Amino acid sequence: MPIRNPTTQGAFWIAVYLLLILSPLFLLLIGPVPAGRNFWVELSVALGFVALSIMGFQFLITARFRHVAAPYGMDIVYEFHRQISWVAFALIIAHLVILFANNPRLLRLLNVFEAPWRARFGLGSILALLLLIATSIWRKRLGINYESWRVGHGVLGTLAVAFGLAHAVLVNHYLELPWKRVLWIALALFWIGLLVYVRLVKPLLMMRRPYRVTEVFPERGRAHTLVLRPQGHRGFKFAPGQFAWLTLRNSPFAFQEHPFSLSSASTADSGQVAFTIKALGDFTSTISDIRPGERAYLDGPYGAFSVDRHKAAGCVFVAGGVGITPVMSMLRTLADRGDERPLLLIYGSKDWDSITFREELDELKKRLNLQVEHLLTDPPPGWPGESGRVTAEVLGRLIPRDRNTRQYYVCGPDPMMDSVEAALTRLGVSLANIESERYNFI
Question: What is the pTM of this model?
Fold first, then answer.
């Protein structure tokens, strides 16, 4: 399932997003304007409406509509979700600061015991947003597990938008006309519809497309490969390098899904897929306990990290640890296709015994024009290869001289990816030639 025209699609969805978040503001300015209000009050109100619109459309950004996310990759979509939350929060703070600076008497509205309900709802929206941001930034420090965080994140986001909308309606400026109230009611229903889709409709659709675990076997590097086969349906087509959200030992209605790269080739006709998962946390450490026959559910495929997006003269893959899994999907697929382009894999691991897919990579060298360079942070005595971490010096020695004729795919721990992307840029590789995938969606 190749992903085509990402630039055109990306520009289209950006334009749609800007239209959606700004149109309520423009429409509210049509008709009579409240009398006796100066420029600063009007600016403050405008900022408040834009902030509310941004918060409401956060539900759209995280609803995982595949065609919306395809031009960017889900990691970019979720990063935008995080950053635009800060923009909304800054607009809300500016809304308050301008109001209070223009009329200090309004500070009395901060007294929730005596303030009218319109002010209480406004403060409640801000408090919910503050808690949402704090629990996202300090989730691990606060000891909140991923599943509990997801529940709380959804509840707090819903409260922030609901309270903000109630605040706007009760203040009643710019909303006197019936059609303007209908506009915001329609927006509220749309946002509620997104929640219903994500938490009810999508799980129901997934229930109709279950998978069964057919194999679970260990790999090097404290990883296990989980093989799934669709039950009663054909499964889904995916591009090599993409990922899916996996639910095990729970229904799709539970908050127990986790994103993992598909490690299998995309060329299989049976619909069978495989995930290679390293034991890094509470959930991933239980993969070895999964037994054949258990039921699973998948939501996917997602992601823009794929060789199918580009037609380069060759590819350079830089992987660290379990970041090898999407790369293996791409290499396996290219081998099945008989691809003859020059391929280079630079693979960082702790030691020789922890190199996941070590033996299969040797076999793939016989089927592909593939060069594999292992970097070990703890090499054995007499190790002839590269050691340490992936640096600009190491990359300068290994990557080809015609650097911008190749496409680069980087996947691994965030610090490694930051270092590699910066090093490639310093070596003269164009940003357009660098693809990366991150799975930190919180």
Answer: 0.83
Task: Look at residue 174 and give its three-state secondary structure.
Answer: coil
Instruction: Render the burial of 393-432: b for 16+ CB within 10 Å, e for the rest.
Output: ebbeebbeeebeebbbbbbbbeebbebbbebbeeeebeee
Amino acid 372: pLDDT: 95
Q: Which amino acid is at 352?
A: W
Q: Cβ distance 308 to 340 under 8 Å? A: no
Judged by DSSP in three states, 78 sits in helix
Count of CB atoms situated within 10 Å of the CB of 249: 12
To the question of domain 211-302 being in CATH 2.40.30.10, the answer is: yes
Structural domain spans, the chain: 6-206, 211-302, 310-437
Residues contacting residue 266 through CB under 8 Å, at least 6 positions apart: 1, 237, 238, 239, 240, 329, 333
CA distance 244 to 257: 10
DSSP-derived letter for residue 262 is: B
Mean pLDDT of 346-372: 94
Residue 36 in this model has a pLDDT that exceeds 70: no
How many Å apart are CA 424 and CA 429, to the nearest integer? 5
Read off the pLDDT of residues 49-89 as tens digits, 9 standing for 90 and up: 899 999 988 888 888 887 777 777 788 888 899 899 999 99
